[in-house]
Amino acid sequence: MLKNILIIGSGGFLGSIARYLVSQLNLTVTFHSVPVGTLLVNILGSFAIGFLTGIAEKSMILTPEWRLFLMVGLCGGFTTFSAFANENLMLMHNGQFLSVLLYTGLSIFLGLLAVYLGYVLTNLL
Predict the structure, then answer these.
(1) Interacting residues of 93 by C-beta distance below 8 A, sequence separation 6+
(2) Using alpha carbons only, how large is the chain's radius of gyration in Å?
C-alpha cells in the first residue's frame, strides 16, 4: 500500500509541475478570455490517458505499477477539473457568459475527442 502511494505521489508530483508550466500559457495566450493553458492541459491529459488505456488493453507493457504512476499519478496531477471550474467562476463573475459556454464546450468536446484519439492511436501501433 505504501509503495503504491509513493508511486502515485511521484507521478502526481511530476504531473503537477508539468501542469503549472503548461498553464502559464494562460498569462500569454488569449482566445475570447478562455484560459488556454488549462484547456490545453486537460486536452493533452485526456489524450494521454486514452493512449495509455489503449496500450494497457493491448499489451502487458504497462505493469500495474506503471499504470498507477502514469494514469493515476501523472495524468491525475497534470489535468485539473478544479482549475477549470474556478476559471469558469471567474469568467461568470466578470460577466463573460459566452466565454463560459465556449470554454466549457471546447473542454468537453475536445477532451472527449482527445481521449478517443489517444485510444484509437494505439490500434495503429
Answers:
(1) none
(2) 16
